[in-house]
Specification:
Blueprint: E1 10-13, E2 18-21, E3 30-34, H1 45-63, E4 68-72, H2 79-87, H3 92-109, H4 125-137, E5 141-143, E6 149-151, H5 168-178, E7 192-197, E8 214-216, H6 218-230, E9 234-240, H7 244-259, E10 264-270, E11 273-275, E12 278-280
Parallel strand pairs: 3-4, 3-9, 9-10
Antiparallel strand pairs: 1-2, 5-6, 6-7, 7-8, 11-12
Helix pairs in contact: 2-3, 4-6, 4-7, 6-7
Bound molecules: zinc ion.
Zinc ion binds near residues 222, 247 and 251.
């Protein structure tokens, strides 16, 4: 029974499917990671529903007397940012800076609190390379014939726990639909890219790594940057429900396998904004 004199903020935790109070693991400050925007165009109202829900959550926690450490990344390298920057005949930096500024202007117009840390994926390439290296050393990742590095899903027994895709066939089928169709050289269908070998259509957007030139896979940036700013174990991870699978499932797999079993303690997912019976986003 909760004490009405001391109301506690409770959340639906996607991982345990329970409604529970989220409290700081260190007893002091609530560590909170939200997946941020991919900056290749304007964010839409469906995206902002998620950011507003996270903002309200943070304000309530802070009003209740618990400080927060809010980290929200900027995805400034992926298939879409590269494709559209080349189409716009701009450098990736120039292109993503423009859309990041627009995102910040929209956040300000909505009176959203800026996150305490807003790391960009391109500023954390060495962190991502280090995590891949750790995963290879621990036997959870492998370099494939095409020069890319993949996470071996079969090496992580808890894969599917967040999305409750317990059935292996269902899992593999879902992963197949979610992955690039050109990833032929993987050992298993469900394995996902940690490092993508350079392809001609990537233009000059490639970084050196122990596995050759290329770029990190999208899922990896959140694992690397949450580890950097919130530590191996932190209180809450959040995003839109469309990120539960495969993005968050893959984040859990990478992080737990790289850190020895720790990651976000709880998960908050925000439902789609519905307009005229259809989802926005
Ligand atoms: Zn993420």
């Amino acid at each position: 029974m909760s004490d009405p004199a001391s109301p506690k903020l409770q959340l639906h935790d996607t991982l345990t499917r329970q409604t529970l109070a989220v409290t700081p693991v260190d007893g002091k400050r609530l560590g909170f990671y939200g997946c941020g925007p991919t900056v290749y165009g304007p964010a839409h109202i469906g995206n902002f529903r998620t950011f507003i829900a996270q903002d309200v959550f943070r304000r309530v926690v802070e009003l209740n007397g618990t400080p927060t450490l809010h980290v929200r990344n900027i995805t400034d390298v992926d298939d879409k940012t590269i494709r559209d920057s080349i189409k716009a005949d701009q450098s990736l930096t120039e292109f993503t800076q423009y859309w990041t500024k627009l995102f910040h202007d929209d956040c300000a117009a909505l009176n959203l609190l800026p996150p305490h840390v807003e790391p960009k994926a391109t500023d954390h390439i060495p962190h991502q390379i280090k995590m891949i290296d750790d995963l290879i050393k621990r036997g959870h990742a492998y370099k494939a014939g095409d020069g890319s590095v993949y996470f071996r899903v079969a090496s992580f027994a808890d894969y599917g726990k967040l999305s409750h895709l317990e059935d292996r066939e269902l899992r593999l089928g879902a992963a197949q639909g979610a992955n690039d169709s050109d990833e032929y050289s993987k050992d298993a269908l469900a394995d996902f890219a940690l490092w993508k070998a350079h392809k001609p259509e990537d233009g000059s957007n490639a970084w050196d790594s122990p596995w050759g030139r290329g770029r990190p896979g999208w899922h990896l940036e959140c694992s690397a940057m949450s580890l950097e700013y919130l530590g191996a174990e932190f209180d809450l991870h959040s995003g839109g429900i469309d990120l539960i699978f495969p993005h968050h499932e893959n984040e859990i797999a990478q992080s737990c396998c790289a850190t020895g079993g720790h990651f976000a303690r709880h998960w908050m997912h925000i439902a789609h904004l519905m307009v005229d019976g259809g989802k926005i986003g």
